[in-house]
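Chain A, query sequence.
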Amino acid sequence: MNNHALRLAEAGRRAEALEASQEAVDLRRELADGNRDAYLPDLAGSVNNHAVRLAAVGRRAEALEASQEAVDLYRELAAGNRDAYLPHLATSLWNVGYVARILEETSEQILDAVAEGIRYFDELAATEPQAFTARRDAAASTLADLQNSAVNQHPTDTTQITSRRRGSP
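Chain A, predicted structure.
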């Protein structure tokens, strides 16, 4: 069902894609309730994709909530098997920014999430540059877009945003 939702979205059929992605989340949540260890990775992926579907139809609060839920699920998975799930955690943190960009939403929490994802991509790219450098660069581009939006929304806060861009706390 998750793949079906992705194909519908690619075809521009947003409402149907949202319905299919919701069904995928519901099914995977039910499976994870019965066997968390076996189905949690699939649930996390479905929730991550569902966040994008929600953002595409402008359901702001639900999209941001779903993207945060995906991060939380991948944090749990990475805590148990860092090597296997760190790439997924990095991607879900980047996805928080992607969803925020669709919604034209910017906050310190969102900027921090994307920056954390970039740090994980940097770590991953140190040992597997071909697999992770492009994803790191795309996440950095998302962060730059969000920072530029923040500057445009709050021009007096540029010092804090500029220092964040340079990697300062």
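Residues 161-169 have pLDDT under 50 and may be disordered. Residues 4 and 20 are 7 Å apart (CA to CA).
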